[in-house]
Amino acid sequence: MGNVIRELFSGEVLYRQGDPSDCAWLIERGAVELHSEQGRRTIVHATLGPGELIGELGMLDGQPRSATATARGPTQLLAIDHDQFLERLESGDSIVRTLVLSLLRRTRSILASLPADHVVPPEDMVSESRDERAGLDKIRLEARLRDAIDNHTLDVRYQPIYDIAEGRVSGYEALVRWQLPDRGAVSPAEFIKLAEETSLIVPVGEYVLDRVLEVLTALRDAGTTPLPSIAVNLSARQLVEPGMASQIVARTQRAHLPPGALKLEITESRMLDYTPVAAVMAHCREHGIPFALDDFGTGYSNLTHLHKLDFEFIKVDQAFARHMFDSPRAMAIVNAIVAMAHGIGAYVVVEGVETHDQLQRLRALGVRYAQGYLIGQAQPASSVLSGEAGRGLQARASATG
Ligand SMILES: Nc1ncnc2c1ncn2[C@@H]1O[C@@H]2COP(=O)(O)O[C@H]2[C@H]1O
């Protein structure tokens, strides 16, 4: 992945007519003039400004650049990745694909037949509908996400998980956070969903995995015993992405970590094809990587998952802990999940634990693990490394235990 954000000085050439096409660009600031040589004449086709795309023709059909692009004044551009765009086009509706490709062919033939002195005035080219603006915003966010991965500005935080039976923090869940200077926090739901639309989700997953393996390795090297486990969230879609599982296994083996140090939490927001997921899970498990089913009891995280796939941990959605005392039904459901989990040899982790009363009740129900604000919020790697992330809160959680 090259530079996602490109700054050009006035007069700098972005590319020349005839150059190979690798990506398109969104103009963020400044202006770009497009011109081509026809015989001895230089024809200026247009000068494009903020919010406009350039280079989309070559990106779409791989033909060489139809014109030379030169910055007029200091200009900032965002790269639109060729592979990601094509993945979207290929996974899109075949009717939309046909229309886009037909428009592309037609545009090329119109451009080829324009009189030599024809200049497209900028106002004729811009018609930003609401849909188009939403598309540009997505392009921007995606480009910045690629930039964040390249420049390591995604933040991984660690939320402690409390082992109720042993009375200590025994592990963490890694949670990825993304802060943009001009936008504030971008919710993981938004950027993970965006990344999942293309294979960009693979480098996001690898990024988090690498940070987690760094923390585990540092803890091990510092002689921390017992070594806490750290869980990484992956969607089943991510897990079956070609090469993902072998990458996970290879990286974990390279780190020489004991079995169980790295866990994977499967989050699911849609229906699954179980066979490939089961195969990948079996492969990881053989290499000492256990699995947790996340958000159990909501959305698509259902009994069929437990029937078809083998999980070592079931994470009960926080809604159940929250309503345990005001709803006997919620309490009965947690109870039933614990009984079921024991029946299939899995441990239960209840999320969203906020009070000592909840913790006490979960202990009485035989729940093994708790996670939530009572135990601790997500904290930086430095607190995990210093032991701080578990210690004080652990004392608090066990105070009434
Ligand atoms: N006549 C034109 N008016 C506006 N933009 C153009 C014109 N001709 C080419 N372009 C843009 O200039 C880009 C040059 O590289 P591409 O051929 O990849 O994609 C082209 C379009 O984005």
From TrEMBL:
Main location: cytoplasm
Domain EAL stretches: 137-383
Subcellular location(s) of the protein: Cytoplasm
Gene3D superfamilies: EAL domain, Jelly Rolls
Pfam hit, one: cNMP_binding
Domain called Cyclic nucleotide-binding: residue spans: 1-104
SMART domains tied to this protein: cNMP (SM00100), EAL (SM00052)
Name of protein: EAL domain-containing protein
Organism per entry: Noviluteimonas caseinilytica
